[in-house]
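# step 3/5: fold
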Amino acid sequence: MCSDACVAELLSLFNKAENLMKIIEIEYGGNHFTPATNELRYAFGHYLKYQSQNDAVDYTETKSHILRAIYDAKEFIMVTILERIKDFEEEYMSVSICSVVSDWVNISKKLNEIKDAIIFESKKLRDDDCEFTNMYEYLKETQKTIRAAVPELEKMRKQNFFNKFIPIAIGVLCTVSGILIAIFL
């Protein structure tokens, strides 16, 4: 059977994975079937084998699957936030985000660093809770920043519309008026 220390370690890791999955459920729609869910299923199967057969391999497998669930949940959260930020950039590409969010260039650089870390340094993210927490907090702050910028960006976008299309509309009206006047004179 599992020692108290083994159970405590697995429970601590499981709680961490579960908390991350709650974040996914609450903040990202709740209906996501993530790889983390599968990993916890596998972990539970190995845990039951470990409890019934007291095989150290199953304990190691249980721990490994829970750690993978934690990483998968972390990755899902960060990728989802990055996708939302990308959608924001695409939505407001017709206006200067920098004129509303003065530090946008530096924010964009940091976002690219985070993307690179997810792609190229996955082991570091898997093993370094502090690094993930820092990146996650940065992404959450960036989301708050862009939410706060939306009203001003919307004003700019509307102003751009009027600045571009009213002169065109006036030009079309003048042309049509000129043609009508020429026809009737």
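# step 4/5: annotate
Residues 129-184 form the longest helix (56 residues).
# step 5/5: archive (pending)
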